[in-house]
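Re: weekly structure request thread

Next one in the queue (449 aa):
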Amino acid sequence: MPILTTEDTAERLTRLQEIIEDMLKEAKRQGASDAEASVGSSAGLEVAVRLGEVETVEHTRDNGLSVTVYFGHSKGSASTSDLSPGAIRDAVSAACAIAAHTQEDRCAHLAEAELMATEVPDLDLYHPWSIGVDEAIELAVSCEDAARAYDTRIVNSEGASLSTHFGIHIAGNSRGFIGGYPTTRHGLNCAVIGQDGDAMQRDFWWTTARCAADLDTARSVGERAAARTVARLGGRRLDTREAPVMFRAEVATGLLRSLLGAISGSSIYRRSSFLLDRLGERIFPEFVRIHEEPHLRRGLSSAPFDGDGVATRAKDLVRDGILQTYVLDTYSGCRLGMPTTGNAGGVRNLRIEMGELDRAGMLREMGTGLLVTELMGHGVNNVTGDYSRGASGFWVENGEIQYPVEEITIAGNLKDMFAGLVAVGNDCDFPGGTRTGSWLIDRMTIAGE
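Done, posted below.
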């Protein structure tokens, strides 16, 4: 895949910044009292193989531009993939036409100028990978080969795929903000099928990073996908019971996502959250600290500014178990009478402070209970906190895994689950913008046979 040189990237950044400036000028010319715009340009390569044969080779190249104009407190938005001057004028005209028919909303406005990002720090997010198609195919094949050779019970494959992408993002508004930066993201994944008698199971593994040198090896990804698959063979069902439940680290990220959904500004001002009116109150045990690190170098979710152009900053969402803040953008903050927290577009690099126990130590801490390794369905009620998900994993006794389990449902309420968090492990071993160890919950209902 052709990769932009440093000079090419700098030239492209300058050109896209000029497009933003032109769009903001055009919005002012057409009478808008305020405007904001963003533009992105990306390219990538993806290859997929299955059973040693190439299935797809895909080159991608995309451009996208969006603009929002404000006439007082009425706003309109439009977007286009055409970056020509004529298309820019047309997009602004379309946004203005929409604003003319939009009801005023007192909270439809830009953030204050003093909140805008005045500097764009280098977060080390751009590491282009000059990998060719043949080499990409070779790595994907070697990943799948490692999985298929791991155990004779691996009988089929869903394939392996490798991807590399780079992009440039520029944003600006009429409050004096304009900024942008390039990013890269590379990944490799594999999924295989195992069989033992009549029992069949599927599992996968993946690696992703800003820099290709930070990826796990193709062999380790394939072998881990196979090991996870084989471990699931021979799954049993359980009788209905109550027991401690441990969410393996990569599964526990879903609990953090439920927390974010409950403390998002839109959920709070709509009064559709089970954590409504809990700001400043204890929602977790005292040992829990959950924080955001948007300026983490090479972080998969790092960003110097949010979707409103507001400077991002590190902060605790939960400290000593107490909810410290909601997650707000300019609009939701206005609706709640609070300042933005710089989270337009979401939370970036969410972290929970991990404990001292590794995975084996967490199992010993649990003693007897359920280790959850996969969740299914969408049975989470953000309003009440009621939680009911299909699950599979392993039954544990005396701190040791006894056998795999499947076709069960775990149920509880997120308020009780958060309050009943016994420990967080230090076993975070998966890639992603959200980092956590395994969670041990004191008690949940397990519905089986």
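The two ends are 53 Å apart (CA to CA). The chain has two domains: 6-230, 231-254+354-447.
Next request, please.
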